[in-house]
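User: Can you recover a sequence for this backbone? Please restate the input before giving your answer.

Assistant: Of course. Working from this structure:
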């Protein structure tokens, strides 16, 4: 017995302290993201930034700790098992119910100034058999050509609504559409609201693009400038989100909200939408759903939201060349 006990490896005090510090740091990070969110520049940075680089040192410590027995080992194991869902947005797609006919297929895609090519964007919509397509950044890059006319021509035969950098293309007739400009810096952002008739069902659609939380300009004036600019940009984003939510609150009946929200699925701004509408990927998606950046996707910032009259059946992110974003496709049924 003595020899067996002596042969059992024990963790060093340093490893125990590192493990305890990792567990405490991760729980603190989770609390900051859920409770503080965008309320402080540092909390916003931790909330909106890619999570894997933040977690990697702690992951190595916890994996190292699993080699040794003790109560701490089980805490490390539990945290490791919870990490994909708590921090990395990993989800298991639920089993699809049988007998639920697809009423509507919706595609949202930030086209990155149309650099994916008009024909490629239209071909993507056809391959997906999309009924409704919401596009963002259909504007020319600096000194470049406006992609709008080519994209409009590629969607010939579709019903179209346009405003600012936004497009809505629908196989169903559009009743009305209008564009509302939202405050933004340094560019103009807004939302495009349209009403269409899907069979006998009226459906309101809001397409939008919120300003990024941490833009390139925020890094140009050092830490002090970064803190100032992040706070200012956050105030503009709150105004943008409030404008979209106010418009959505006026809708009586089925509603879809689609676009690039530049917001990960955590924090207060995400919570404002999640408290009112269903995030299609969170409800029925599988995997991480990361939509940005296409070459090394680490963030989910593009969304399809729906009101209770619509039930999401499936949602997935599509790999496609051209843009820096990946498109999101969801299928819906009427409740």
């Amino acid at each position: 017995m003595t020899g067996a006990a002596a042969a059992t490896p024990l963790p060093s005090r340093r490893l125990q302290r590192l493990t305890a510090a990792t567990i405490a740091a991760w729980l603190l990070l989770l609390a900051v993201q859920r409770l503080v969110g965008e309320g402080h520049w540092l909390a916003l940075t931790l909330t909106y930034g890619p999570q894997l680089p933040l977690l990697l040192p702690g992951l190595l410590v916890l994996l190292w700790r699993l080699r040794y027995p003790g109560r701490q080992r089980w805490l490390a194991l539990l945290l490791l098992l919870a990490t994909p869902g708590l921090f990395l947005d990993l989800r298991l797609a639920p089993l699809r119910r049988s007998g639920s006919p697809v009423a509507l297929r919706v595609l949202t895609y930030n086209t990155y100034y149309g650099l994916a090519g008009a024909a490629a964007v239209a071909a993507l919509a056809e391959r997906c058999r999309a009924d409704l397509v919401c596009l963002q950044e259909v504007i020319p890059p600096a000194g470049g050509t406006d992609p709008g006319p080519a994209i409009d021509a590629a969607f010939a035969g579709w019903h179209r609504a346009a405003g600012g950098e936004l497009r809505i293309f629908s196989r169903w007739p559009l009743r009305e559409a209008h564009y509302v400009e939202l405050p933004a810096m340094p560019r103009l952002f807004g939302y495009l609201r349209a009403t269409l008739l899907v069979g006998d069902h009226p459906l309101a659609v809001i397409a939008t693009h919120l300003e990024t939380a941490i833009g390139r300009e925020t890094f140009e004036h050092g830490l002090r400038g970064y803190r100032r600019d992040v706070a200012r940009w956050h105030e503009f984003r709150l105004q943008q989100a409030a404008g979209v939510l106010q418009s959505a609150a006026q809708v009586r009946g089925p509603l879809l909200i689609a676009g690039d929200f530049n917001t990960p699925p955590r924090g207060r701004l995400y919570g404002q939408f999640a408290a009112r509408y269903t995030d299609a990927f969170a409800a029925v998606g599988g995997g991480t759903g990361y939509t940005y950046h296409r070459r090394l996707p680490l963030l989910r910032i593009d969304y399809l939201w729906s009101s209770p009259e619509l039930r999401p059946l499936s949602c997935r992110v599509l790999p496609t060349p051209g843009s820096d974003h990946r498109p999101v496709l969801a299928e819906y049924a009427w409740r």
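That completes the design. Residues 1-5 have pLDDT under 50 and may be disordered.
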